[in-house]
Queue: 2 jobs
Job 1
Amino acid sequence: MTRPLIAEHERSTDVVASLAVTLDGDVCRPDGAVDYLDKYPLDDFDFSAWADRVGALVMGRTS
């Protein structure tokens, strides 16, 4: 008797990556500031809607 690879009652999970990457490898300034982002209105990003859909968040050790 063989089992199906995925049981009918199991749900699939979406994995979505959202990365902050720069050419010099530094996402923030040495003091931790990200003031270069201030020129972009927060409304453009709809962070609250994005955060409502996040089940897990992984961050780097230096940022």
Job 2
Amino acid sequence: IKDNAIQIKDYTVKIIDHAVQIKDHAVKIEDYAVRIKDHAVQIIDHAVQIKDHAVQIKVHAIQIKDYTVKIIDHAVQIIDHAVQIKDHAVKIIDRAVQIIDHAVQIKDHTVKIEGNAARIKD
């Protein structure tokens, strides 16, 4: 798919226009710089790191129980290894990736692109 620049190879998805890269269960959004790999979360621009259940919060952050982090000003929620960014609506739960606004779902190696009516399963 050339219009939205999506490549699927070894379960790798790239959406260049919307700056979303999914590679080996890692999600990278350039505007917000979210990386999730092996249940390690790094939000570089907003300075939140969760790795081995160690939380480091630097900017505009509120820490809640059970490894839950909410950043209200920048609308980032990290709850039990799930990431939600309201403008981009990214959820990662148990290594399943859902990008709701841009209609990309990766769950059990299944990709759906609803906006362009492309479905790639298995």
